[in-house]
Write a structure and sequence with these properties.
By secondary structure, the chain is mainly β. It has one helix and seven strands; from the N terminus they run ββαβββββ.
């Protein structure tokens, strides 16, 4: 059985397989909308390799973290911008 980690996403505890990126986790759970353009168009995980900026979230109080390049770890607090 694979190890799991528990992180908090927008105040809710989520269990995830160890080694998964935050971006992959959010996309797999519900295709999360991570931000909106200036015109209100939804954006989520796009390139998945750190080239674009469509997956920016706040991690442990640090803003503008690329979710696709950040591995989920136990106790991590992720906030998806409103």
């Amino acid at each position: 059985m694979a190890a799991t980690v528990r992180l908090i996403v927008n105040g809710k505890a989520i269990d995830a397989p160890e080694g998964i990126s935050v971006g992959a986790l959010l996309h797999a759970r519900n295709g999360a909308v991570l931000r909106q353009t200036q015109h209100g168009a939804p954006r989520g995980l796009f390139c998945g390799m750190g080239v674009c900026f469509d997956c920016l979230v706040k991690v442990d109080g640090r803003p503008n973290v690329r979710a696709c390049m950040t591995l989920a770890r136990d106790g991590m607090i992720v906030e998806i911008p409103a």
